Amino acid sequence: MHNRIDKLFKTKASNIVSIYTTAGFPKLNDTLSVIKALDKAEVDLIEVGIPFSDPLADGETIQKSSTIALENGMTLKLLFEQLKNLREISEKPVILMGYLNSVLQYGIEEFYKQCNVCGIDGIILPDLPLGEFEKSHKQFTDKYNIHAVFLISPLTDKKRIVQIDKLSKGFVYLVSSNSTTGKTQDPMKATEQSIKEITKLKLKNKILIGFGINNAKTFNQACSLANGAIIGSEYIRRISNSTNIEKTTIEFIKEIKTGIYDHSIK
Amino acid sequence: MKKKLNNHIDKDGYYGNYGGSYIPEILYNNVNELNKKYNSIIAGKAFRKEFESLLKNYVGRPTPLYFAANLSEQFKAQIFLKREDLNHTGSHKINNAIGQVLLAKHLGKKRIIAETGAGQHGVATATVCALMGLECFVYMGKKDVERQAPNVSRMKMLGATVIPVLSGSQTLKDATNEAIRDWMNNTENTYYLIGSVVGPHPYPDLVTKFQSVISAEIQQQLKSITGEPSPDYVIACVGGGSNAAGAFYHFIDSDKTKLIGVEAAGKGIDTGYTAATLNIGTPGIIHGSKTFLIQNNDGQITEPHSISAGLDYPGIGPLHSFLHETKKASYLSATDEEALIAGMNLTKKEGIIPALESAHALAALEKIKFKSNDVVVVNLSGRGDKDLDTFINYLNKKENA
Ligand SMILES: Cc1ncc(COP(=O)(O)O)c(C=O)c1O
């Protein structure tokens, strides 16, 4: 079955730019305009966060964006309505990222079915245990052609990495350091060590590095170690008080890709 | 014949449909290490010896099982109070804090973090850390920092750092989120000392085991007072559910003993200002555990309300979700006002000022029809010093009305 994440990696396997954004942020109806801007800025992958009241794995910036999105009136039901037109505006692979409780309350099968209807390619649920995925989710991710992406951390042992790689589809998400999102104390140090170990394991999946990637320098470091990187908090910060999301987005992605802030873009 | 105790938990940490471990990968190693080692550590001879000695000589256990004659006359039953309020630091929380600090030491962790609502768990943790010379950080919702000021001062005096939490509803739920985030950022040196029977497996089981000293003592004490180890009722308030789990533990499979948990109804269970999780909640995931919680249709966890900071929590330990579903225990609720009245009543009748949390358990005495020879044990989980302001405000308001 056709999946945009696989298609992406068939044509490009390095310097992958993946951007995280929170649905319904900064304004309720910005979800699609942000995706459109990211498409225009030529990112490779888009992750859309389902806002949750208690985002355990997130640092302050993404927490705050979640709170604002919820105050704006965002719900998972509304998100699926907004995403009905997703494939009219972008052909980029899009992943939904959120917490398990949202999926449980929506209904597990119905969630994956709606993902499929909207053209969503993958999901990341950091608090979904592997065993529970196999027992209650896998039959639906298979049925509706949704790639489940799992996280590994620098502390994940080899046996478990192999297990996570086996269950993941598309890529595995390597957390740069043991932390919540948005903490930036030298994120690449621990990663370098773990990548060495991981490479030896010859995983079937591509690897993207996330958490703490916030500028061209850390992005380049991540790209030199893996297939690409995921940027969340820093992007949220940039668009949170932007008056022109498209312009801000294009400038930011350019800055990340080249390391040079280009003042010529108006 | 002595029956073997069944703790009702399976190898994956589920009590029936509830429990488990729903945590980000970053915490997997820490939780897994704890899970692999806790049973053998806490069953070890050296551990047991140190734990029991501290409970006896430092905490002052066993706590009395006091026959409350005046309450008994009022409610026409044989009412006993399990005096957890007489523990060092003033509540049952110290039983668990000692157990887990010893466990942390066995695991080689030097930095202790905790969440707290009423501040009782924070004080207990800060106390044991002072005793053992460990660094201690306590997360506490800003709202609770304000309404439980005496406990904040105690923690600081004991050398702990109290970190006010500004996110969400600024109460226990958010303090727990922040403590978990701290743990994610400090996995290697830090032990997370959870204060109730909540969180990912093995915490609910671990905390239940440390608190089960309460029901073990009740059995022994009742036997020597009445000749019969099992009461007709055990009544306890339920926030996360640790004092209730401890008071219920040895009676869970008793056909005789009715187990009654009392949740905080706040302004009333239908008002939207409540913390009565089992009464109005639905199953979901909170703080790494599958259990009942108060949430909306979209799965967003709702801000709870209770006058009592220790019960102001939108979730509940998975053991209680299981006991509720299998009808092995019943869960009533008491409003803010009912708790205040019951607290005042105990003060006047028995000369004991209870914690507002425990006052919820006392309020249930009004709601149950007892037979005159029923033996009823109320777990008096804590003392009321921390709640004096709230009680006094209530009395002043009543006088002015
Ligand atoms: C005196 C007292 N009782 C009860 C509780 C509620 O906790 P749990 O339900 O875990 O016993 C608290 C919590 O702070 C407390 O301080």
Can you offer a commentary on this structure?
The complex is a heterodimer of chains A (266) and B (401). With 266 residues, chain A is α/β, with parallel strands linked by helices. Chain A has a single domain (4-257), classed as Aldolase class I (TIM Barrel, Alpha-Beta Barrel), CATH 3.20.20.70. In chain A, 49% of the residues lie in helices and 14% in strands. Chain A has 13 helices and nine strands. In chain A, strands 5-4-3-2-1-9-8-7-6 form a nine-stranded parallel β-sheet. In chain A, helix 10 (188-200) links the parallel strand 7 (171-175) and strand 8. The longest helix of chain A has 14 residues, at 130-143. The radius of gyration of chain A is 17 Å and the shape is globular. In chain B, the strands form four sheets. In chain B, strands 3-4-14-9-10-13 form a six-stranded mixed β-sheet, sandwiched between helices. Chain B contains 16 helices and 14 strands. In chain B, strand 5 (111-116), helix 5 (120-132) and strand 6 form a beta-alpha-beta unit. In chain B, helix 14 crosses helix 15 (356-363). The longest helix of chain B has 19 residues, at 25-43. Chain B starts with 13 loop residues before the first strand and ends with a helix. Chain B is α/β, with parallel strands linked by helices and 401 residues long. The interface between A and B is large, with 40 and 32 residues. The structure holds pyridoxal-5'-phosphate (PLP). Pyridoxal-5'-phosphate (PLP) is lined by residues 91, 93, 117-118, 120-121, 196, 237-244, 310-311, 355, 357-358, 381-382 of chain B.
Summarize the structure.
The complex is a heterodimer of chains A (266) and B (401). Chain A is an alpha/beta fold.
Strand count, sense and barrel status of the largest sheet of chain B are: 6 strands, mixed
Number of domains of chain A: 1
Strand content of chain A: 5-15%
User: Within the CATH hierarchy, at the fold level, what is the topology of chain A?
Assistant: TIM Barrel
Radius of gyration of chain A: 17 Å
Order of helices and strands of chain A: HEHEHHHEHHEHEEHEHEHEHH
Count up the helices of chain A. 13
Largest interface: A-B, 40 and 32 residues
Helix content of chain A: 40-55%
Order of the strands making up the biggest sheet of chain A: 5-4-3-2-1-9-8-7-6
The percent range for strand residues of chain B is: 15-25%
Which sheet architecture does the biggest sheet of chain A show? 9 strands, parallel
State the total count of DSSP E strands of chain A: 9
Taken from the alpha-carbon principal axes, the silhouette of chain B is globular
As laid out across the biggest beta sheet of chain B, the strand order is 3-4-14-9-10-13
Mean pLDDT over the residues of chain B = 96
Instruction: Determine the N-to-C terminus distance of chain B.
Output: 59 Å
Backbone structural class of chain A = alpha/beta
